[in-house]
Design a protein that fits this description.
By secondary structure, this protein is α/β, with parallel strands linked by helices. It has a single domain, classed as 3-Layer(aba) Sandwich (Rossmann fold), CATH 3.40.50.300. 36% of the residues lie in helices and 21% in strands. The protein has ten helices and nine strands. Strands 3-4-2-5-1-6-7-8-9 form a nine-stranded mixed β-sheet, with helices on both faces. It is globular, with a radius of gyration of 17 Å.
């Protein structure tokens, strides 16, 4: 294992046989089932509050989708505290903000990663007015252009309860994936987050429960719940 990979926050690319990587493959599979009639091509990944694991979830999910042979783009839409450039050890000099402010073309701002099929659009220089940039028609056009160029586009956004960015972005994507840290996030906050997203008519695909200690073991696992609208049931995949 290279030093670069040993420090990386993208664990699913390090040991493909680990329970951690298998959990993300299960998440990938359930996303496919959830969008069997109409695939979710643009997915917003957000959380209720900070430090719930939304960015690492976005990164690892992008890796396992790319490993399945799909062309994936991760867009770092957290224009306040971006981390995707750190996750993949990329330069953050050019990114989303350059596309929005300087009309830089998408293909000129995208960076490739060591994972075949996975590209990153980093945040770029942090702006003084993130919400104003996020809520523009230029942002919607950027997402639409990415949708046309890739099989799957994952957007990493700020938490719903802290700023309005995620709510604004939820109107521009096919679906929303909510990451919840089970050890600390109060259910009342999760319910309020859902209410805020409902107000924008966001399509909530499912919830990733992060840091669930299964049977008191030493490993932390991810669960994914996706509603099967045809059968009005909620299938559960757990590792």
């Amino acid at each position: 294992m290279s030093e670069k990979h040993s420090r990386a926050a993208v664990f699913s690319s390090i040991d493909s046989h680990s329970p951690f990587a298998e959990a993300f493959r299960t998440l990938r599979t359930n996303l496919s089932f959830a969008g069997v009639d109409k695939p979710y091509k643009t997915i917003l990944v957000t959380s209720t509050v900070p430090a719930e694991g939304k960015s690492s979830t976005t990164a690892n999910l992008g890796v396992v989708i790319a490993q399945a042979g799909q062309k994936v783009l991760i867009i770092d839409c957290d224009l306040r505290k971006p981390v995707q450039h750190q996750n993949f050890y990329l330069d953050n000099a050019v990114g989303v903000t350059n596309c929005l402010v300087n009309d830089l073309k998408l293909d000129k701002a995208i960076q490739s990663t060591e994972m075949a099929g996975l590209d990153i659009l980093t945040c770029g220089p942090i702006p003084p007015n993130p919400a104003e940039l996020i809520g523009t028609t230029k942002m919607a056009a950027l997402i639409a252009a990415a949708r046309d160029a890739y099989d799957i586009v994952l957007l990493d956004s700020p938490p719903v309860m802290t700023v309005t960015d995620a709510s604004l972005l939820s109107t521009m994507v096919d679906g929303v994936l909510l990451v919840v840290k089970t050890a600390s996030t109060k259910i009342e906050l999760v319910q309020e987050t859902k209410s805020l997203l409902d107000r924008t008519n966001a399509k909530i695909i499912g919830v990733v429960l992060n840091q669930v200690d299964v049977n008191g073991g030493n490993y932390y696992y991810y669960y994914y719940y996706a509603k099967d609208e045809k059968k009005n049931s909620i299938p559960r995949a757990a590792i």
